[in-house]
Amino acid sequence: MKYIIFLAIISLAFSCISTRQAATPVAANTDTIPSLIKGDFADDYDIRYTLTDSLFTQYPQARYHILKWNTKEQYFVARNDTANPSEKGLYSRIDYMYFQNMEPWHWGFCLTVYNAPSDSLAEVQAIADRKNPRKGCNGYPFSRMKRR
């Protein structure tokens, strides 16, 4: 009888360990900023930007706190700063793409979603059309970026 109780306790212990491991959340995408888009930039309209691993700033006062990078699909998800002029504290998906033979423009971005109530909704709500960079950003062109 003691042997059966011992086996039951061991079985229960292993069951708890397995359940606990399965319930551990999967780590968020740990991609980081590609070097080509990291730094200080200006767009077609001479608006200035700074992009780091954790913050996308559109000067003078819009900031987006980056929560997730997806370099394979070329986008990141961010929370809008609570001091932004609009969509304060909501979530954005910002798609980007690389340009070839368009110097000095090497990449562009699209604020694909800017007012989602959650990061997960921002991520799945819309996708920019990179095959058509002139109209692939919700009917508008991608903002072309050059280094400052």
Characteristics of this structure?
globular, alpha+beta, 34% strand, 148 residues, 2 helices
If you had to describe this structure to a student in words, what would you say it looks like?
With about 150 residues, the chain is α+β, with helices and mostly antiparallel strands. It has one domain. It has helices at about 1-25, 120-125; strands spanning about 40-45, 50, 55-60, 60-70, 75-80, 90-100, 105-115, 145. The chain has an 8-stranded antiparallel barrel. The protein is globular.
Task: Give a short overview.
The protein is an alpha+beta fold and 148 residues long. The chain contains two helices and eight strands; from the N terminus they run H-E-E-E-E-E-E-E-H-E. Keywords: Signal.
